[in-house]
Amino acid sequence: MVRGEGSFLFDGAGNRYLDFVQGWAVNALGHCPPELVAALGRQSRELISPSPAYHNARAHELAVQLTRLTGFDYAYFCNSGAEANEGAIKLCRKWGRLHRGGADEIVTTHGSFHGRTLAAMSASGKPGFSTLFPPEVPGFRKVPFGDAGAMRAAISERTVALLVEPIQGEAGVIVPNPNYLVELRRLADEHSLLLVADEVQTGMGRTGTLLACEYSRVRPDIVTLGKGLGGGVPIAGMLFTQRANCFSLGDQGGTYHGNPLMAAAALAVLETLTEPGFFEAVRERARILEALLSAVARKHHATLRGRGLLQALVLASPEAVGLRDACFERGLLVNACQEDTLRLMPSLRVTREEIGMCVSTIDEALHAL
Ligand SMILES: *Cc1c(COP(=O)(O)O)cnc(C)c1O
């Protein structure tokens, strides 16, 4: 691939692809959006890396904006979603030492994906991860996703936190009952635990609200962000409450953490997302996508699941890879996240026409299969 513009990618041979992968749900505003290009240009002329030893204006501004919009008290920025989850795990463990008599176990869920550092892999319930690079980092216990009773049963003296994705992304866009997060919040409160939401994929407007947790009206103690936060450049972060905060200076750090170039990009994304009517427009695009895709799904005995512009088509047979390739041949980029599941994560600015093109290509590809 050599060039991107909005919903389209172009390869070196001049082929054009309609992109419903968007850097893996990263390019919230599509490829090379003018706001992002301008912000990066402006910031690169002002300041790129002052070193993490000093606060910088852009990271500060981003922290102020994000905490103001979400109601959290603190923000910390890093480079990747996995690193954001590492930070959350560290905060939980320290909190357990200070407030829960040394409890350090975090309950997570089967099928979950939290990233590819060793601790994030150990927290993940992705099949195959646990045997890939043994030994695993200890301190994680896994229960079925969407089952608050199983979570309750897994809580012990050793438990310090519950960690879940509001919607499991890599597992195939698994949407739990809307009460699930409410029940986890209640469990965390009853047992004095921290509730951590991994919103690396679901956050930043992907599901039609700034955070997916808003849908359940639940405020976790810690939220991790990544992917859409930078609109295509590597910045991730964690937001947390006063209650959860126990970091001291030096507990967490990184050479590029909070660097102003990436923070400027995230500010440009956030400014666009918070323009009046932006999320309403995302939800309207999602309704169009759902309406068109569910008609195609019915024709091919498939089903649809997802929220906002994170959608999956679940096929009647394990043919997602074949379907992805048939779409690719027809100039459409989609992701086969499971054997039977095709995932769509377009630009939040995808047009009605592009949605129509995507769905009719999937229809054609399904016929061809
Ligand atoms: C992608 C993803 C991560 C990992 O983010 P990286 O930036 O690849 O480290 C973590 N959690 C979820 C839910 C993700 O989708």
Description:
Helix content is 37%, strand content 17%. With 369 residues, the protein is α/β, with parallel strands linked by helices. The strands form three sheets. It has a seven-stranded mixed sheet, with helices on both faces. It has a four-stranded mixed sheet with strand order 1-2-3-13. The two termini are 26 Å apart. 51% of the residues are buried. The model has no long low-confidence stretch (mean pLDDT 97). Pyridoxal-5'-phosphate (PLP) binds next to helix 4.
Give structural attributes.
alpha/beta; 7-stranded mixed beta sheet; about 15% strand; binds pyridoxal-5'-phosphate
> How much is the average pLDDT?
97
Beta-strand content bin: 15-25%
Q: Helical residue percent?
A: 25-40%
Quickly give the structural class.
alpha/beta
> How many β-strands, per DSSP?
15
Q: What is the topological layout?
A:
Layout: E1 3-5, E2 8-10, E3 16-19, H1 22-25, H2 34-46, H3 57-70, E4 74-78, H4 81-99, E5 105-109, H5 118-123, E6 140-143, H6 148-154, E7 159-164, H7 179-190, E8 194-198, E9 222-225, E10 236-240, H8 260-273, H9 278-299, E11 303-307, E12 310-314, H10 320-329, E13 332-333, E14 335-338, E15 341-344, H11 352-368
Parallel strand pairs: 3-13, 5-6, 5-7, 7-8, 8-9
Antiparallel strand pairs: 1-2, 2-3, 4-10, 9-10, 11-12, 12-15, 14-15
Helix pairs in contact: 2-8, 3-8, 9-11
The chain binds pyridoxal-5'-phosphate.
Summarize the structure.
With 369 residues, the chain is α/β, with parallel strands linked by helices. The protein has 11 helices and 15 strands. The chain binds pyridoxal-5'-phosphate.
